[in-house]
Amino acid sequence: MSEGNVGATGARRPDGTHRVVITGMGAVSPAGVGVEALWRAVMGRECCIGPVTRFDTEGYDVRIAAEVRGFDPTEHGISKKEARRFERFVQYAIVASDEAMAQSGLDLEAEDTTRIACVFGTGIGGIDELQSGFFTLAEKGPKRVSPLFIPTMIGNIAAGNLSIRYGLRGECLNVVTACATGAHSIGAAVRDIRHGYIDAALAGGSEESVSPICLAGFSNLGALSKAEDPALASLPFDARRAGFVAGEGAGAVVLESLEHALARGANVLAEVTGFGSTGDAYHMTAPEPSGEGVARAMRQALAEGGFGPEDLGHLNAHGTGTPPNDSTEFKALEALVGPEAAREVPVTSVKGTTGHTLGAAGAIEAIVTALSVMNESVPPTAGYAEADPECPANVLTEARTGYAQKVALSNSLGFGGHNASLAISPFCRTAK
Fold it and tell me: Within a 13 Å sphere around the CA of 74, how many CA atoms are in the beta-carbon half?
């Protein structure tokens, strides 16, 4: 066994760079508002998928989705004026970030806010406003298009509005890597903190993808499950899997250098010990079949933390429930740990519970991974029942508890061949 984090005592790593820790987490998901609702649903193997209520699906091949149901932004700290001006992906980002910032306990009046960044992405952005604007232009003419159309719709406006809300004057970025966006946003912030460019960051991803144009486009691409029964729609790694279910929401984390967190007496939740990021250079929508690029990202993430493949406690897989994705990800796991160990390492996918939240998925799943190592557990995968002999991952159908781990990986893959892997470990003041 390797000794993970060899010599990484105190607040610095052996190479002198900063250790990066999580001090706050927030979520809006199909399970409801808040991290607690998300964790309860995932650990309880709940399915939060149901009939689409946001628009009439007559004529659509797909009529189910994982919506954030009953969401009223004014009940969660957003003013009526903001609710009118902000698209749903921005509203979700704000509510999740409010929770994360509150848990972190950051006193922004006492901080040098030029040293706190906001790295918050979205895969698609304000798709509802975009579709509405096109209709207005076509039906009523150019003079009737809202003057706020552009700043309402553009993807970077979640990061912009978050930085304005909290007064964060460090780097302000919107990372876009499709379904890997949330993970890449966190990874970009981790690298900035690790190398001393900033002391802390608010990072994550948000999406409002349950919309007419998105469901039509993804459905016609053949990416979505056409199952009528919500419980049989999102089936990660299952032999019956036939596509993903569109979801929506946001995940937010507050990241800090360990030095900064300890200096202010913060409660450290978990540590981001590594980050891997690679490209497939293969296809617009399909993952490279061998999983080489995914395995490389996973290997990078483990190595950055001083871990070896044998230290992997569990994999929080991208696990979309599409036949190519899950097979590719299992091949990547085999390449990482070997064929025998790949059948033993616990694997989970939250997408049986939340559907695929696209640009928010990497952030929401990083939160679940952090909670897993914090609570010495691995969540089960909702929907999984029939093992695929071509993809024999050790997918849990019951929660594994009392399971201490050195490190877990959270994978995210995006159209275009974007691969991201976050290594997350339980926090130990003196890393071993």
Answer: 7
| Beta strand extents in 280-430 (DSSP E only) | 312-316, 346-348, 377-378, 394-395, 400-401, 407-414, 418-426
Locate tokens 């919500």: which residue?
230
* Distance in angstroms (rounded) separating the CA atoms of residues 424 and 365: 11
Distances (CA, A) of 62 to 214, 222, 245: 11, 11, 9
- Dihedral sign computed on CA atoms, order 99, 105, 107, 111: negative
pLDDT, tens digit only, all 432 positions of the chain? 333 343 344 889 999 999 999 999 999 999 999 999 999 999 999 999 999 999 999 999 999 999 999 999 999 999 999 999 999 999 999 999 999 999 999 999 999 999 999 999 999 999 999 999 999 999 999 999 999 999 999 999 999 999 999 999 999 999 999 999 999 999 999 999 999 999 999 999 999 999 999 999 999 999 999 999 999 999 999 999 999 999 999 999 999 999 999 999 999 999 999 999 999 999 999 999 999 999 999 999 999 999 999 999 999 999 999 999 999 999 999 999 999 999 999 999 999 999 999 999 999 999 999 999 999 999 999 999 999 999 999 999 999 999 999 999 999 999 999 999 999 999 998 764
Contacts of 313 (CB under 8 A, 6+ apart): 346, 373, 378, 403, 404, 405, 406, 407, 408
**Strand, helix or coil for residue 20:** strand
Distance, CA of 130 to CA of 372 (rounded, Å): 37
Give the integer Cα–Cα distance in Å for 262 and 247: 37
Beta bridge partner(s), residue 381: none
- Calpha distance 177→276 (Å, rounded): 14
70: exposed, middle or buried (C-beta count within 10 Å: 0-12, 13-18, 19+)? exposed
d(CA 199, CA 192): 8
Of 152, 120, 158, give the one whose Cα is nearest residue 136: 152
Supply the residues annotated as catalytic: 179, 318, 356
d(CA 177, CA 414): 6
Collect all residues with Cβ–Cβ distance below 8 Å to 36 and sequence separation of at least 6: none
Residues 153 and 411: their CA atoms lie apart, in Å, by 28
